[in-house]
Amino acid sequence: MSETWDIAVIGGGNAALCAAITAAEAGARVVILEAAPKPYRGGNSRHTRNFRCMHDGPLGPLVESYTEDEYLADLLKVTGGKTHEGLARVAIRSSEECLPWMQDHGVRFQPSLSGTLSLARTNAFFLGGGKGLVNAYYRTARKLGVTVLYEAAVAHLERAEDRIVWLDYTHEGKNHRIHPKAVVVASGGFQADTDWLARAWGPAAKNFLIRGTPYNRGVVLADLLDQGVEQVGDPTQCHAVAIDGRAPKFDGGIVTRLDCVPFSIVVNKEAERFYDEGEDVWPKRYAIWGRLVAAQPDQVGFVIIDAKSLSLFMPSVFPPIEAESIEALADKMGLPPDRLRATVDAFNAACGDTSKFHPTELDGVTTTGIDPPKTNWARPITEPPFYGYSLRTGVTFTYLGLKVDERAQCSVGNRPVANLWAAGETMAGSILGQGYLAGFGMTIGTVFGRIAGKEAAAHANAS
User: How far is CA 22 from CA 157, 168, 233, 249, in A?
Assistant: First the structure.
């Protein structure tokens, strides 16, 4: 291309758009290079639903308050303390100012959400979901003069010492090279490259499903890491959840997630339970189940519930398997009927007083005398018809990424790369060492996308 750009933003999801909008508002000429076709623009952000937000009082659709310390405590709990507290606090503190910024740039939110998800205080839900958010940002970017190229696959960033000197990409069947003053990498993780997943995890990863876009293959990430840009994170750590086993290999999205685990028992292919299904409320603990299922034979699990629990959770897009007896359900699900019957009977016998059952709070309704226990919401599975879902590991995004500082800047050794920033899933491992907290990926992307856009524009404007 003949045009000269101040800033090239690689990627087309939430973080990329926040960076592009912020940079354009600062006067920079910005091009977005989105690998996906236009109907699939937005990366994993298309499938998101909400944004986790700190607030000291009611804010937009959020009720009451959600303090910095409580937010951080929730994050530390799900990560087991494996987080960069300084960067986490940047994300948390900045989230409060992000919500009105999002509204000012076209994002609309649903009224406060109550009920099964327990998120009225903590998470603001997008009106129209992730596609609504992505489309709003693209409209805003267009008004600001941002150029967007679809099916523009970046192949290489050339680093010379402490600078990116050019960028190569393909578009409309041709190779292009541009020399932007600054680059923001917001092109996600490597999860859609299942060969890379298998190298990290072993052959079991071939059985994983990829919840999001098939375009996040880690090409830019690998290119930069090969050139010595500092990396962060463990390639086996990722945001992985248990999803409906009937989901497609790629791009099934949020509708394939199963939220029924707290009200169920979960068994492996041998009809044996393997973890406490009632450990915590779902938004805090749902992301552990992808890894738990990954550790089971053939990387598969099975949810078993009865009629009284069917209305307590948001269902998958696929209907549950239904039967009038446990044995008949086992037959339909390919499980050993006698062993499933024995597991259900042992669980039922371990359940006690259920009078304090409360589906949206830790209720202490627990089992006794079995291992693993179920520490909340433990009710006997006795009321026909009985229902089941198969579970497989659904990978959302990987945590191996580019290491950044509080300015979202990348580095080589101890030296910053003067004109390279990263935002979103491609640097989320800088904060997330393991585990996941519902809505936090959008927080990271929004906060560090805005930071990267601001810093890149300041650099470009001073050049």
Answer: 23, 24, 27, 35
The pLDDT of residue 119:
81
CA atoms lying within 13 Å on the CB side of residue 22: 26
- Report the number of secondary-structure helices (H) and strands (E) in the chain: 11, 19
Q: How far apart are CA 422 and CA 57, in angstroms?
A: 31
Spatial distance between the Cα atoms of 100 and 103, rounded to a whole number of angstroms: 5
Residue 413 has pLDDT above 70, yes or no: yes
- CATH classification at residue 293: 3.90.700.10
pLDDT tens, residue by residue, 141-173: 999 999 999 999 999 999 999 999 999 999 999
How does DSSP classify residue 271?
S
Q: Where residue 262 falls among pLDDT bands split at 50, 70, 90?
A: very high
Question: What pTM did the predictor assign?
Answer: 0.90
Q: Cα dist. 185→101, 197, 246 in Å?
A: 22, 21, 33
- What CATH number has the domain bearing residue 151? 3.50.50.60
422 shares a domain with 338: no
**64, two tokens:** 């009451």
Share of the chain above pLDDT 90, in %: 88
Q: Tell me, yes or no, whether 216 and 338 share the same domain.
A: no
| Residue 116 binned pLDDT confidence (cut-offs 50, 70, 90) | very low
> What distance in Å separates the CA atoms of residue 432 and residue 427, rounded to the nearest whole number?
9
d(CA 268, CA 293): 8
- Domain with 371, as residue range(s), is 240-394
Which is nearest to 243 in space by CA: 267, 263, 259, 266? Answer: 259
End-to-end C-alpha distance for the chain, whole angstroms: 21
At position 108, the amino acid (one-letter code) is: R
C-alpha span between 459 and 181 (Å, rounded): 8
